[in-house]
Each structure stands twice: as structure tokens, then as C-alpha cells.
Recover the amino acids of this structure.
């Protein structure tokens, strides 16, 4: 127990250098390589005084090291300043944007995870048979089409031509948002089914060739019992930890889906910021997503050690 | 690695064939898989088209107006025409060149970074390893699409940007795999033997360990191409992609405005062209892994 606490604490402390590194990368990209954004904001004909004033306002005339500290400070205080284009507090924009994103991503994630685990069990059970081959081929074909094509085709034909779904837009409040997110959810599920089924199938098959499974069969258990009682329980470990790492992406929403369906979530916000060269919002979203991923990777690692005693701590 | 004793079962009799290298052995196994061979032929076909197009021998005149605006596919215009009356077929061919070049040049950037960092970290261990692991943990903490977007945004629109942005975001997986594999080889007997005859780090790493882990690079490159081709489409939608020449991404992106007017052929042309080659890379990647990964031998 002592050693596992040691590991967990060390693992948590490791977050600090990782986040400092992320801040440094963002700083290099946006403050050093990107150059002076002042003329982007003021237009080409701004006077030198105006430019200097704006630089002062945005903190761009500080020495580079101080600018780096500003990035670090924002990562630890969640105070990202104001958006250049809307002048709103970025942190409040994020809180506003999180809800529409979650109304899209949570149901989509739950549905796609359940479906792909079920399919994976099915194909692992019938491995090598026709249905396994069929589903695998379908998965690989589905993965070979661009995300953009799914969105364009589904939106144009299902929503626009046949009028089955809302084309775009969003309304706040429980039953009101539902019609707007159904089609994006369907597209999300279609997009993730291919890679997820393949991944879960591998996880399950990794267990199927283990010795304990052979023992279970040798005892005379039927294949169904072997699968459900023995294989699946062990295969659930990587499956659950894999889903944990996906969680931060739910908060961030889906860049393309939100922007195509005009859902005012964080993903759509990021694309808008990109199109209007809104550096602070882009930086804030990058930092937020990095924090999310770093934290959830940590949780995954800890879960792994807690759930599976075979995993050695070091 | 070279002298792997490979067992090959022919009918019921088991013959031991000596001195077959991993590569030859893998090639034999790949050859037995008809679908993998077909995929390989498709990939070679696309590369050929890309090279011919790059040399100006094919679809060099894609910018030429060949008919009316938005002509549907017919005997005259096989894949129809776009808004400016340009041949969609020629644009698809030119797009092939862009797609293959994006895969190729992003690999040229990503592979050396991945190999160098992964090999050094795995081989030397200690603080060097810590540093490299920290470095790629930082990169992988930022979602791929965000990093790709940020780099492309900062470098500005253009095909070189696409190469660099993709190259700088796709080395992480390779570095991680190479590191893990090098760690496994580092303490093997053949490396101890190499040490005992007084070989230096450089020779041990480059002459002995790296050839043994190079199959990972091959498998990874197949993956890299399809990721690159798919990412080009997303970058085009974000307005950060190729400009001044047609690519599958820009053609698919154009369909935003075209589909509602019933113009589907540009989308269809680019999508089918992309589907075939990405599918081929997908299948080839799987087949290469099965045939090159010795752990799976005989399974």
C-alpha cells in the first residue's frame, strides 16, 4: 500500500513539469513564432502610437520571460483574460460553452461506447467466422472516409433534403436542445464505431489467448460462460481505462460537428477564434485541453494500478 | 535478426529453411495475403500517378477550362466539371499528387524525429530518457487536432505548412514505440556481446539495435500516410490547407456550397479517390504488422 501511495503522489507531482512544458510550447508558438499580432487586430494602417498602446495593453511589450510567466499563471489560475474579438472574459465564455458541448458529447459518447463494446464482444465471440469478417471490413471501410464527408452528406441529405433533422442551430434547456443534437450524435457514433470496435476487439482477443481461458475451457465451461465470466471481466480493465482518457474530450466538444451545426459549444468557439485570429481564446482552449488530458491520463494510470494488481509500480 | 530460422509448413511435411531474413520471411507471408498484395498494388498505383503528375506528365493542365460550369458527369467530362468549368478528373489526379506528397513529406519530418528521440531515450535511459519522455508527454498532452491547428495557423496557409504541421505532430507515437522496443533490445545477449568486443554506443545503436526495430518504422509509415491524407481534408476546411492548387481536401470543402445545388460529383470524385487509397493503407498497415511483428509469428 505504501509503495502505491508513493507512486500516486509522484505521478501527481509529475503534472507540474508537464503543464510547465505545455505552457512553454504554447508560449513558443503564440508569443515567439507567431510574431506581432497587433497589426492583425488594428489593420495595416494603424499608427505607430496606436500599435504601441495596444501592445502595452496586451502585455506584449514585456520581456519574453514575463510573457511566459503570464501563460503559466493563466494555466494555474484559469484566468485567461479577455477574448480579442468579443472582449468577453474567456473563463465565462468557457463555462457558457461547456453546456452545449456536453449535451452533444455525453449522449454520443455513451451510445457509441455501449454499441462498440457490444459489437466487439460479438465479433470476438464469432472470431474468424463470417460475421467477424463482415464487421471488421465494414469498420475499416468506415474509417477510410473523411469526417468532413460524413458531416456534409448527412447534413445535406438527411437534414436538408429529407428534413428528418434540424439543419443547424441550438436552443438552451432540456427538451429544447434535443432535436438539434440528434444528427450530430448520429454522426459522432458513426465516426467512432469503426476505430472503437477494432480497439475493443483487440483488447478482448488479447485475453482470449491467455492460459486461464484455456483452463476455463478445459474445466468444461461452455464458450458463452468463458466469454462473459472470464474473458470479459479481464478485458474490461483496458476498456474502462481507455474510456477514462476520452472524458476530457467530451468537455472540449467536437470542433467540426459544432461548427457545422452551429452549436455554441467550446469546439465551435475554438473554430471561431481560429477564423478571427483570437489568440487568447486559442491559447486558453489549448491549455484547458492539455490540463484535461494530463489529469485524466493520471487518473487512468492510477486506476490501472488499483484495478489490476499485476501492474508493477515503479 | 538476419538469421532467423523460419519454419514453413508445406502440406503436412515440415521443412526447415535456413538463413531467411525477417524481411524475406515477411515478404513471403505478405505475398500469401491476396488482399494485402492488392492493397500494395493500389498504393504503388497512386504513387505512380502522383509522380507522373508531379513531373507534369499527367493532369498538368488542371487549371484549363474544358466545358461549362458544373457540367454533370458524362461521356465528355467523366467526372463532370467544377464551378470554373475545369475537369474534376484532372483535379482528382492533381489531388492525388498533393495527398501523396503530404504523406511523404510529413513522414520525412516525423520519422527522423521519432527514431532519434525514441532510440536515444530507450538506449541511454536515465535522465536522457526522463527528458525525452517528458518532452513527448508535453506534446501528447495537447490534443492532436489542436496542436495541428495551432501550428498550421501560425505558419500560415500553404502546402509547406501542411507538411510541417503534420510532421511536427505525428512523430510522438513512433518515438514511443521505438523507445519501448529499444528498451527490450538494450539488455539482450547480442548487445552484451557487442559491448564485450568493445563496440561504442553509436555502433551498437545504429548497426545492431536499430535494424531490429526498423519494422516499426515501416508499419508506422503506412499509418502516417492515411493520417496525413485525412488531416489534409480537415486543414482545408479550417482554411489552413493547400492553396492555389486543387487537393482532395479543398474539393471536399467546396462541396459545402455545391451539395445543396445538387452538385455531388466533385465530392464523390475526391471521396472515392481518397477512400480507395486510405483503405489500401489501412489494410496494408495491418498486413505489415502481422507479417513483420515476430511476436505474432505462427499465430
Amino acid at each position: 500500500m505504501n509503495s502505491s501511495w508513493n507512486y500516486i503522489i509522484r505521478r501527481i507531482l509529475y503534472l507540474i513539469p508537464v503543464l510547465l512544458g505545455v505552457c512553454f510550447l504554447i508560449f513558443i508558438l503564440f508569443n515567439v513564432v507567431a510574431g506581432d499580432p497587433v497589426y492583425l487586430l488594428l489593420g495595416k494602417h494603424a499608427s505607430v502610437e496606436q500599435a504601441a498602446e495596444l501592445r502595452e495593453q496586451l502585455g506584449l511589450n514585456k520581456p519574453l520571460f514575463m510573457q511566459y510567466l503570464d501563460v503559466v499563471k493563466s494555466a494555474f489560475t484559469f484566468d485567461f483574460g479577455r477574448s480579442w474579438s468579443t472582449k468577453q472574459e474567456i473563463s465565462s465564455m468557457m463555462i457558457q460553452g461547456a453546456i452545449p458541448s456536453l449535451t452533444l458529447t455525453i449522449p454520443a459518447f455513451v451510445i457509441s461506447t455501449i454499441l462498440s463494446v457490444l459489437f466487439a464482444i460479438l465479433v470476438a465471440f464469432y472470431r474468424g467466422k463470417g460475421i467477424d469478417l463482415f464487421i471488421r471490413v465494414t469498420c475499416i471501410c468506415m474509417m477510410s472516409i473523411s469526417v468532413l464527408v460524413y458531416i456534409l452528406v448527412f447534413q445535406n441529405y438527411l437534414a436538408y433534403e429529407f428534413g428528418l433533422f434540424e439543419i443547424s442551430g441550438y436552443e438552451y434547456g432540456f427538451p429544447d436542445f434535443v432535436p438539434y443534437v440528434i444528427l450530430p450524435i448520429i454522426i459522432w457514433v458513426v465516426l467512432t464505431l469503426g476505430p472503437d470496435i477494432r480497439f475493443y476487439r483487440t483488447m478482448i482477443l488479447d485475453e482470449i489467448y491467455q492460459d486461464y481461458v484455456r483452463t476455463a475451457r478445459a474445466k468444461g465451461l461452455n464458450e458463452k460462460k468463458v466469454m462473459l465470466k472470464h474473458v470479459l471481466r479481464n478485458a474490461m480493465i483496458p476498456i474502462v481505462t481507455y474510456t477514462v482518457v476520452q472524458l476530457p474530450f467530451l468537455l472540449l466538444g467536437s470542433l467540426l460537428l459544432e461548427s457545422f451545426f452551429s452549436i455554441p459549444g467550446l469546439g465551435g468557439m475554438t473554430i471561431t477564434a481560429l477564423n478571427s485570429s483570437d489568440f487568447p481564446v486559442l491559447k486558453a482552449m489549448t491549455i484547458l485541453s492539455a490540463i484535461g488530458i494530463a489529469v485524466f491520463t493520471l487518473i487512468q494510470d492510477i486506476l490501472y494500478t488499483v484495478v489490476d494488481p499485476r501492474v508493477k509500480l515503479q | 535478426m538476419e538469421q532467423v530460422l523460419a519454419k514453413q509448413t508445406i502440406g503436412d511435411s515440415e521443412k526447415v529453411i535456413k538463413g531467411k531474413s525477417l524481411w524475406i520471411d515477411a515478404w513471403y507471408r505478405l505475398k500469401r495475403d491476396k488482399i494485402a498484395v492488392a492493397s500494395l498494388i493500389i498504393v504503388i498505383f497512386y504513387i505512380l500517378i502522383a509522380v507522373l503528375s508531379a513531373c507534369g506528365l499527367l493532369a498538368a493542365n488542371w487549371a484549363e477550362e474544358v466545358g461549362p460550369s458544373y457540367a454533370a458527369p458524362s461521356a465528355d467530362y467523366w467526372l463532370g466539371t467544377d464551378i470554373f468549368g475545369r475537369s474534376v478528373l484532372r483535379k482528382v489526379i492533381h489531388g492525388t499528387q498533393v495527398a501523396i506528397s503530404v504523406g511523404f513529406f510529413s513522414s520525412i519530418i516525423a520519422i527522423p524525429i521519432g527514431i532519434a528521440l525514441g532510440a536515444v531515450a530507450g538506449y541511454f535511459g536515465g535522465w536522457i530518457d526522463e527528458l525525452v519522455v517528458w518532452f513527448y508527454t508535453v506534446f501528447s498532452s495537447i490534443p492532436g487536432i489542436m496542436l495541428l491547428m495551432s501550428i498550421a495557423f501560425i505558419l500560415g496557409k500553404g502546402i509547406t505548412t501542411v507538411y510541417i504541421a503534420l510532421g511536427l505532430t505525428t512523430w510522438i507515437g513512433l518515438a514511443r514505440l521505438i523507445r519501448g522496443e529499444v528498451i527490450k533490445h538494450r539488455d539482450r545477449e547480442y548487445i552484451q556481446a557487442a559491448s564485450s568486443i568493445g563496440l561504442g554506443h553509436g555502433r551498437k545503436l545504429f548497426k545492431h539495435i536499430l535494424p531490429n526495430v526498423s519494422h516499426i518504422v515501416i508499419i508506422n509509415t503506412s499509418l502516417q500516410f492515411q493520417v496525413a491524407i485525412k488531416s489534409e481534408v480537415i486543414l482545408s476546411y479550417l482554411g489552413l490547407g493547400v492553396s492555389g492548387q486543387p487537393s482532395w481536401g479543398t474539393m471536399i470543402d467546396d462541396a459545402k456550397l455545391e451539395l445543396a445545388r445538387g452538385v455531388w460529383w466533385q465530392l464523390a470524385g475526391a471521396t472515392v479517390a481518397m477512400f480507395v487509397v486510405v483503405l489500401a493503407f489501412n489494410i496494408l498497415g495491418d498486413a505489415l504488422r502481422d507479417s513483420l511483428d515476430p511476436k505474432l509469428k505462427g499465430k
Observations:
- The two ends of chain B are 20 Å apart (CA to CA).
- Residues 88-124 of chain B form the longest helix (37 residues).
